[in-house]
Amino acid sequence: DLDAGKGLVAAGQGADDRLPDFNQFLPLIHAQDRDRVVASLGAATASGQPFDLEYRLQAPDGEMRWQSARGRAEAGPGSRLVGVAIDITRRKQAEIRSVEEHAALQHMTRVALLGQLTASITHQLNQPLAAILGNAEAARLMLASVSLDLGELAEICTDIIAEDHRA
Fold first, then answer.
1. Handedness of CA 125, 131, 133, 136 (dihedral sign)
2. How far apart are CA 69 and CA 147, in angstroms?
3. Please, which residues have CB within 8 angstroms of residue 17's CB and are 6 or more apart in sequence?
4. Rounded to whole angstroms, how far apart are CA atoms 165 and 167?
5. pTM exceeds cut of 0.70
6. pLDDT digits (tens, 9 = 90+) for 120-156
7. Alpha carbon distances (Å) from 14 to 11, 50, 72, 76
C-alpha cells in the first residue's frame, strides 16, 4: 500500500541488494508528476497489472531529468515492484525542441501567408486607385482646356465612380 507508507522497495541486481524505500524515492519525483506516479504504481501493486510510466525527477542540484519506468508488481509478501527505469532526458529534450521548432515553423508560415495576402490586397487596391488618379488628372486637364467635351468628362466621372466602387 503506497499511501500507507509500508515501504515499497525496489529490487537491486542481486537478490539481497535493496534500493531505498519508495517513500525515500518519492520526494525526488517532480511535484507535478508525483500523484500520477503514486496512483499508477498503487494500481499496479493492487491489481498485479504491469506499469509503464514517464516522469520527471528533480535532482538535489536542481537539474530536471526524465525517466521511463516499466515493470510489474511482484507476487509475495510485502509490496514490491520489479522493473527497469531508463533515463530518457535526451529524448524528451529532443521532443520538446521538435515541438518548439514546429510551432516556430507554423508561425513563420502564418507570417509568410500574411505577407502574401497583404501584397495581394495592396495590388488589388492600388489598381483602382491608380485609375481614379489618372481619370481625375485627365478631368482636371480637360477643365483647363478651351474646348470642353462634356460627354468625355461625364465618361471620366463614370470611370472614377466605378473604380471607387471597385476599390
1. negative
2. 95
3. 11
4. 5
5. no
6. 999 989 998 998 999 899 888 888 887 888 898 899 8
7. 8, 22, 18, 18
